[in-house]
Specification:
The chain has a single domain, classed as Rieske [2Fe-2S] iron-sulphur domain (Rieske Iron-sulfur Protein, 3-layer Sandwich), CATH 2.102.10. Helix content is about 0%, strand content about 45%. The protein is built from no helices and eleven strands. The protein has a four-stranded antiparallel sheet with strand order 2-3-4-9, with no helix packed on it. A four-stranded antiparallel sheet has the order 5-6-7-8, with no helix packed on it. Strands 1-11-10 form a three-stranded antiparallel sheet, with no helix packed on it. Strand 6 and strand 7 form a beta hairpin. The radius of gyration is 13 Å and the shape is globular.
Length: about 100
């Protein structure tokens, strides 16, 4: 059964900079896009690169290894070489706590 788990505070996640968090043993990339928070699987579906080490471009993250692009808000692929999206997780903010549903 899915549950919300506190992973960070709003002060921990700078706009435009991904933050790696671990939730129940799973690597999750956390993002602040214009004050809204999003979480996607940290592992690129192309070759397994850590997306949390990629470059944020607006609402997209570019894989640091081969340049695949993913929509931060949905997890969908927005540019090759990846052809499969990554999991997106529900996020909620409670006070200054960021919680991810796993």
């Amino acid at each position: 059964m899915a549950e919300y788990v506190k992973v960070a505070t709003t002060e921990d996640v700078e706009p435009g900079k991904p933050k790696l968090v671990e939730v129940n043993g799973r690597r999750v990339a956390l993002f602040n896009v214009e004050g809204s928070f999003y979480a996607i699987d940290d592992i690129c579906t192309h070759r397994g690169a850590p997306l949390s080490e990629g470059e944020v471009m607006g609402k997209e993250i570019q894989c640091p290894w081969h340049g695949a692009m993913f929509d931060i808000t949905t997890g969908e692929v927005s540019g090759p070489p990846a052809d499969v999206g990554v999991d997106k997780f529900n996020v909620r903010v409670s006070g200054s706590d960021i919680e991810v549903e796993i």
